[in-house]
Amino acid sequence: MSVRNHSFVTEFVIVGFPGLQPEFYGLASAVLLIVYCCTLIGNFAVLILFATPNILHKPMYIIILNLVVSDVLFSTTTLPKIIARYWFQAGAISFIGCFLQMYLVHYFGSVTSFLLLIMALDRYVAICFPLRYPMIIKNSTIHILNATAWIVAKACPLMMVIRAYPLPYCDSNTILQCFCDHISITKLACTDRAPYSFPAFVTAMVVLLGPLVFIIFSYCSIIVAVVQIASPQGRLKTLSTCSGQLIIIALYYLPRCFIYLASNVGIRFSTDLHIVIIMLYSLLPPMINPLIYCFKTKDMKQTLMKKFKKSTAP
């Protein structure tokens, strides 16, 4: 009998936090709705800033613009469904819909990883090769790199979906997660998942650790270049141009690396705590990043203050 004939599951049910008591469903949905609204408001505010002044039409801000789009799309892919699950008890998602969500979750995560690599490249060239920066990093160059990130990021999630979709799903259809991802779906397959999970794990490591290796190299090179600057004021000024990017990169990579390392050294978390950690590193950065963009980047901060003064002027 074919694998497809064993797939009796026609829909999945997203459980969210399995240990959450029903009396807290309203509170959970309200918190998630606030996170989603703050994410949309903050990121759309950044988009509005980009829409007006030419001062923001620079390589670094073009990268930030792409990060904003990726963050909004990721949050829109994941949050509405889990909010509906707790608010309206509508946790069911179609078989195809779950795999579509899985693809988008991993796709936007991969896009963000590659965009952070491009961001690190921009700072590396700006600080280590300042005289060559205008020739190497142009708006057209960044547009090409960003487009490449969006295109290349399609490959790994697509491979995951193609390998996971035909598996036989004939037992439980409850997903112990707040959204459909590769691990939570393939755990439900009525077959040995090792031949499918290991290639997916290797792919995830390449997408995660590949950019991270270059990011670490670039910022180590930046530190070496900064140490060679004679004046303390010059060192602080140079480092300040990287502070916002470092915070964004740390918010994305550190929790993910912690989860992967913990699972490999035998550290085990409860299911609810594991889901909470995943939700924190998945959904908080898109909400916090707009604040970092606006208050840690000089041009955006000045543009925001000008708009605020203009709106409050009599």
From TrEMBL:
Localization of this protein: Cell membrane
Major site of localization recorded for this protein: membrane
A Pfam short name: 7tm_4
Top-rank taxon: Eukaryota
Domain named G-protein coupled receptors family 1 profile: residues: 42-293
Cellular compartments per GO CC: plasma membrane
Gene Ontology MF: a single term: G protein-coupled receptor activity
Residues that span the membrane, as ranges: 24-50, 56-74, 143-165, 201-227, 239-261, 273-295
Coiled coil ranges: none
Membrane topology summary: Multi-pass membrane protein
Sorted UniProt keywords: Cell membrane, Disulfide bond, G-protein coupled receptor, Glycoprotein, Membrane, Olfaction, Receptor, Sensory transduction, Transducer, Transmembrane, Transmembrane helix
Family under the similarity heading: Belongs to the G-protein coupled receptor 1 family.
Protein name: Olfactory receptor
Name of the encoding gene: LSSOR1
